[in-house]
Amino acid sequence: MPKYAIGIDYGTLSGRALLADVATGEELAAAVLDYPHGVMDESLPNGKRLKPDWALQHPADYVAVLKETVPAVLRQSGVDPADVIGIGIDFTACTILPALSDGTPLCLLPEYTDEPHAYVKLWKHHAAQPYATKVNDLADKRGEKWLANYGGKVSSEWAIPKVWQTLDEAPEIYAKADRFIEAADWIVWQMTGIETRNACCAGYKAMWNKNTGFPPDDFFKELDPRLEHVIDEKFGREILPLGAKAGGLTAEMAALMGLMPGTAVAVGVIDAHIFVPAAGISREGEMLAIMGTSTCHMMMGREERQVKGICGVVADGIMPGLYGYEAGQGCVGDHFQWFIDNCLPAGYYEDAKAQGMNIHKYLRQKCEQKKPGESGLVALDWWNGNRSVLVDADLTGVLLGMTLATKPEDIYRALIEATAYGTRMIIDTFNEYGVPVNAFYAAGGISQKDPMTMQIYADVLNMPVKIAGSEQGGALGSAIFGAVAAGASKGGYDDVFEAARRMGKVKDTVYCPAAENAEIYDKLYAEYKVLHDYFGRGQNDVMKRLKKIRTCLASHREQNFE
């Protein structure tokens, strides 16, 4: 009798479930739910305005995904719930929330519905940058060895800066919270009734190391005396490895999802990292870029090396027995969508409609008529800060070379090229620090739907770009870990590498670089590097000065409103 696993992928805007055959990885059914509350970056549900650089979510949306999508895939597939042996979860990170000891999010308490710090802080919440800067300054001053494993900088997107911001700006929320927990671990807690912490989130986003644990208490005390025991008081030190079973579905959650009580649930994993087994990658030297609203770059190696400006190197952080390397770009799909939402004249929409095209396809068609360098434009891809290799959320975008002849499609293509340059900068940095990138794979929605962009990447990188085989790579990877959590005795796997080989997949599609284009892009990339270093390495801090003026004006308006 065939056995099945369900993978649940929590992205930035939606959550999706995928039901897959455990023996072959065949995808039988998928369902998606857009989060009812979306991303709250302007106001809370009650209309209370948020300050700049905030990005929140509502945890009720995460439970709604389970309630809506899992029964949907069971209906579509006709699979008997008794034959579903495991469930895996992946999530954006660091996406963190304060909760009571029973798992109740503070934002669900009536007294805190209008307190922003009581909600989930999404990965792209960047208002904690001042706290990240202080963490970095102190760690550097003390010579903390763990800092080198994160490229020399902790990001504002990570756990401790976000928690410290809560303590400093809303001490009542900090005091009320029994736990600060990654959303990946929180949803597993809701499903199993057991609080667990996964090694992926802890290692990449909370400064935990398999061999040395968390930074010492006296480091946190020197940051802020109130943080001295933050790990023991608000987090916990028991960390479970990837592929481990967190527990079984509770009767209540099984009824909600239409599954059997006791169905194995794997510990959570970061959404980007779970794509690696879904692409069947189990070797060192192969980089996988998961391209969506942002891009995460995943690599594995047999040695631990410190690479400047990456997001982290973590033992067993992606697959057991190997060091997992992560880098990333904070704005890719969001970058393109921003342009389409804000910068296109009405005539473009009218022409697209007349030709029976959606606006994305129409704009790409115009871009494809352009050659590299033809527009005379070059851009920096920092519309949402720089995640790697500068690790600075206060950096902003640049577009250079515009004239009265510049067309919207010129700008759109320059923005796409900028994200490719950012990826090349990351690859160059890995190579420089002794972690060679021998092959490049792409996954995520952009890789599946946008051939033009993937060809630009191949030309800019001057490397073939291979495409992951599943359009739901995150959910498939989670299903793989769900099959491992169930174990061979239940029809799954005891070894994640075997599970990845059996269930993971890569398409036959390969984008190969065109020599003529690659030569031009070498010249454009050289200009990108000049701008990258000029604005990003301190020679000209105009971006930060402008943000400071904006923040001061926003605070002034808020005071006047009050």
Distance between the termini: 65 Å
Shape: globular
Mean pLDDT: 95
> Main β-sheet: number of strands, strand sense, barrel status?
7 strands, mixed
Q: Using only CA atoms, what is the Rg?
A: 23 Å
Quick structural overview:
This protein is α/β, with parallel strands linked by helices and 562 residues long.
Structure characterization notes:
This protein is α/β, with parallel strands linked by helices. It is 40% helix and 17% strand. The strands form five sheets. Strands 1, 2, 3, 5, 9, 10 and 11 form a seven-stranded mixed beta sheet that branches. The protein has a seven-stranded mixed beta sheet with strand order 14-15-13-12-18-19-20, with helices on both faces. A two-stranded antiparallel ribbon has the order 4-7. Helix 2 (129-142) crosses helix 3 (159-169), helix 13 (359-368) packs across helix 14 (408-432) and helix 16 (451-461) packs across helix 19. The longest helix has 25 residues, at 408-432. The protein is globular. The model has no long low-confidence stretch (mean pLDDT 95).
